[in-house]
Structure formats: structure tokens, C-alpha cells
Write a structure and sequence with these properties.
elongated; Alpha-Beta Plaits; about 30% helix; single chain; 5-stranded antiparallel sheet; alpha+beta; about 160 residues
């Protein structure tokens, strides 16, 4: 059995940026998700385009894309990445929630899981920010990695 360890710690337990110099360049993709629960009236306002701040969904999608590109600037040990694709989708889920999904892609030596998670999180935070005047009780929940591919660790798919 192979011993697993935290890759962001050196042999003395100090934080380090992982050296990816010798890793193979591969196509890498990751998809993350978050859910934003709100009052049904808030969801109706968003979907009906009746929010006084404008197109809430478009703003949240753009915020998610920007966040993916800035992940290395937000999370101390992340590498700056040349993302080749970022998509953020926001779909209604029942009468009281929006499901945010973010997918990031690149061809490189390190994965894009953190970029996808950051995109989904910031898009959700943007939804909250734009709607807090009408619904301060919104809840951002279930932020998680859905799937990733590429790299040495191979495929991952969340089984729920």
C-alpha cells in the first residue's frame, strides 16, 4: 500500500508550492458545483429578469470566469495557470435554488480543480451579493468537486 501524504508539505511539515517541473503535460479538466438556496420569490425575480440590479445570472457567470483566472492570486500555493476554457452555468433547481456548475480546462502540468471550485464559489457569492437586499437568508451550500480528468491521479467522479 502506497503511503499518501499532503503534497503541499515538505518533509519537515512546512508549506510549499508543489514542484510540477517534471510532470507530464496533459489535457486536464475539472467541474465543480455549488447550490444557492433562496426564497422562491427571489428565484422568480431572478429568472423573470425583474431584479433591479439587472441580469443577475450573467453577472454571476462573468464573476465565476474571472475568479477561475485569479485562483492563483487568492489561494497561496496554487500555480498561475493558462486556462484554455472556463464555463459557468447556472440553472434553477426546484422552486428555491440555483445550481452553479463551473468547468475549467487546460493543457498543462497541474490540475484545475481549485479553479473550478473557486469559479463555482465566487459565482455563488455574486448571486448572494446581488440579491441580498431582497433575501439576506440565502444559503450557499454543497460546494464540491464533481469530476476531474487528466494528470497522474487520473479520473475522479463524485458518487452521490
Amino acid at each position: 500500500m502506497t503511503e499518501q501524504r499532503f503534497t503541499h508539505l515538505d518533509d519537515s511539515g512546512r508549506a510549499q508550492m508543489v514542484d510540477v517541473t517534471d510532470k507530464d503535460t496533459t489535457q486536464r479538466t475539472a467541474t465543480a458545483q455549488a447550490r444557492v438556496r433562496m426564497q422562491p420569490a427571489t428565484l422568480e425575480m431572478i429568472l423573470g429578469g425583474e431584479h433591479p440590479k439587472g441580469d443577475v445570472l450573467a453577472t454571476a457567470r462573468i464573476a465565476g470566469i474571472q475568479a477561475a483566472k485569479k485562483t492563483w492570486d487568492l489561494i497561496p500555493l496554487c500555480h498561475p495557470l493558462l486556462l484554455t476554457g472556463v464555463t459557468v452555468t447556472i440553472e434553477p433547481e426546484g422552486a428555491d435554488a440555483l445550481c452553479v456548475q463551473a468547468t475549467c480546462k487546460l493543457k498543462g502540468t497541474t490540475g484545475v480543480e481549485m479553479e473550478a471550485l473557486t469559479a463555482a464559489s465566487v459565482a455563488s457569492l455574486t448571486l448572494y451579493d446581488m440579491c441580498k437586499a431582497v433575501d439576506r437568508g440565502m444559503v450557499i451550500e454543497s460546494v464540491c468537486l464533481l469530476e476531474k480528468s487528466g494528470g497522474r491521479s487520473g479520473q475522479f467522479r463524485r458518487e452521490d
